[in-house]
Amino acid sequence: MKKIIELKNFNIGFYENTFYTISGSNNSGKTTLIRTLKHINNFSQAVIPFELRVSKNTILEELTYQNNDQEFINYLLKGLKIKSISKESINNLSKKEIILVQITLALSKRPKVLLLDSIGNYLKYEELKSIFKFLRDYQSKYALTVVTTTIHLEESLLTDYLYIIDDGMIILEGEPLEVLQKDNIINKAGLEVPFMIDLSVKLKDYDLISNIELDQDRMVDILWK
């Protein structure tokens, strides 16, 4: 697999067609890193919430202005579930809708890398899952590296690889489920381990379960056996 972005002074790299999470507490350097990644890679598009620059009035007009492939535009509008508002004025959209428009416009430029800065702060978890599911589909069709930042570590379970940063340095990295079991380091960095993983780690310490369980009902069934 080809490495598409590398920051040697930060000791961080991203491979093509892979989904990454960068997590850290507030003021840990996440947004600065996103802006840096955008600056060093000409094939990246960054979505920083509400930084929206458009020249047309509606979503459809702006998309058509940027990309005249109607089939591709319809794929984006349908996949991100904003076809019903595509002819509305961008000025009248909600915060959630603006973020969806930002992602749509970014993807319309066919980037190799999509950078998402803490969009989960403005969306419900199920809404974020729906967006990430579509981005997985997009990856399978067009190839795309996705890098998302968040303070909410449960979001990393929807991705392939997790970096945790603190004071501008990487303190943990690896597959999300493995990284999230290192609760002591994570807590010292000012982050919270997702409840089910935290509970699973504690129950494993007492030999009450053998594996990390993410499903609460399944956990109850195991404990009652």
Structural features:
225 residues, alpha/beta, Rossmann fold, six-stranded mixed β-sheet, two-stranded antiparallel sheet, 8 strands, 18% strand
Distance between the termini: 44 Å
Give the overall silhouette. Answer: globular
CATH class of the largest domain: Alpha Beta
In helices, the fraction of residues equals 40-55%
Radius of gyration: 19 Å
Number of strands: 8
Let me know the average pLDDT: 90
Write down the secondary-structure element order.
EEEHEHHHEHEEEHHHH
- CATH-scheme architecture of the largest domain: 3-Layer(aba) Sandwich
**Secondary structure category:** alpha/beta
Main sheet: strand order: 4-5-6-3-7-8
- What low-confidence regions span 5 or more consecutive residues with pLDDT below 50? none
Main sheet record: 6 strands, mixed
Instruction: Please state roughly what percent of the residues sit in beta strands, choosing from under 5%, 5-15%, 15-25%, 25-35%, 35-45% or over 45%.
Output: 15-25%
CATH topology of the largest domain: Rossmann fold
Structural write-up:
The chain is an alpha/beta fold and 225 residues long. The protein folds into 2 domains: 3-181, Rossmann fold, CATH 3.40.50; 194-225, no CATH class. Helices cover 40% and strands 18% of the residues. It contains 9 helices and 8 strands. The model has no long low-confidence stretch (mean pLDDT 90).
